[in-house]
Write a structure and sequence with these properties.
disordered C terminus, alpha/beta, two-stranded antiparallel ribbon, single chain, 11 strands
């Protein structure tokens, strides 16, 4: 890694108390360069996700219609903030909705569009869900190809793609410019964690961007195990700085997207704190590598 890494963005889902306009102002103020926009119709999302503010009462959401997409695209362009991803909640099998999202991604700076694999909390066996997901991708991919849009499969807990190896079992069947894989650090602390270097080796050229968040664990009743919750990036169970160092040592040059769902700070405070934290992590990494290079040269 040479120089200062500047492809640091944020996912709007993590700032439920801010309006899109307020988030753009904050991104500019604190030095972010890009954004993933949560795109959702509250009536479609509620009931399918946990009742958390980030999902059920999120002001920082773009409505799934052309007017809203055009408006936020113009606002970001004026602010010199790149929209590198749209994060809608697309049910597997809803072809019309997915194709509409692909059209919106085309309008929004040719951004990527996130997709989730089928969830595992159903009666379907893995083989059934895998076959259903493959059929769905096969049907929507021609639309994405026509509009030069990359689908981005997020590694996500409670889905059939909860690890790098499971995600690649799907992605490897398609060209990487049409279907990539989002490496989500926080989700892996809940389910699917594999060695970082092994994960990157598996994902290879399919890697799109990296999402950064962290979790904590708390003990349940005696003999009932532990449950997870969203923790700050620096205080969770994952060694985020070490993980980022590994990512950067693999010549990563895409987006780092901060998606911190913890609630210890206000959304505005998180916005300021987290970019400073990640920049410090990267600067420390760069300094350590430079020292090693100098030492070997002597």
């Amino acid at each position: 890694m040479t120089g200062k890494f500047n492809k640091i963005g944020a996912n709007s889902a993590a700032f439920p108390s801010l309006t899109p306009e307020q988030l753009v102002e904050g991104l500019v103020k604190y030095g972010y360069r890009g954004v993933e926009w949560r795109v959702a119709d509250a009536q479609r999302v509620n009931g399918n996700l946990l009742k958390q503010p980030a999902f059920s009462d999120n002001l920082c959401t773009i409505q799934p219609n052309l007017e809203s997409i055009e408006k936020i695209s113009a606002r970001c362009q004026d602010a010199n903030i790149e929209i590198f991803g749209l994060s809608p909640y697309i049910p597997v099998g809803d072809l019309d909705y997915c194709k509409k999202m692909i059209e919106f991604a085309h309008v929004a700076n040719q951004s990527r569009i996130r997709i989730w694999a089928p969830f595992t909390d159903t009666t379907a066996k893995y083989q059934e869900s895998y076959a259903q997901f493959r059929r769905f991708i096969d049907e929507v991919l021609p639309k994405a190809q026509d509009l030069n849009i990359q689908l981005a499969l997020e590694i996500h807990q409670r889905t059939i793609c909860s690890s790098a190896s499971l995600a690649m079992r799907v992605a490897e069947n398609y060209p990487e410019d049409l279907l990539g894989v989002i490496y989500d650090m926080g989700n892996l602390a809940i389910e699917g964690r594999e060695n970082v270097q092994l994960s990157l080796d598996l994902i290879g050229k399919y890697l799109t961007h990296v999402q950064i968040k962290n979790v904590g664990y708390q003990r349940l009743a005696q003999h009932k195990g532990w449950s997870w919750y969203w923790e700050t990036i620096e205080d969770g169970v994952l060694p985020i700085q070490k993980m980022l160092t590994t990512v950067m040592e693999n010549n990563f040059n895409d987006w780092l997207s901060i998606e911190d769902f913890s609630s210890y700070r206000s959304d505005s405070e998180k916005l300021e704190h987290n970019i400073q934290l990640i920049q410090n992590y990267l600067d420390d990494d760069f300094f350590a590598i430079e020292k090693e290079v100098v030492a070997h040269a002597k």
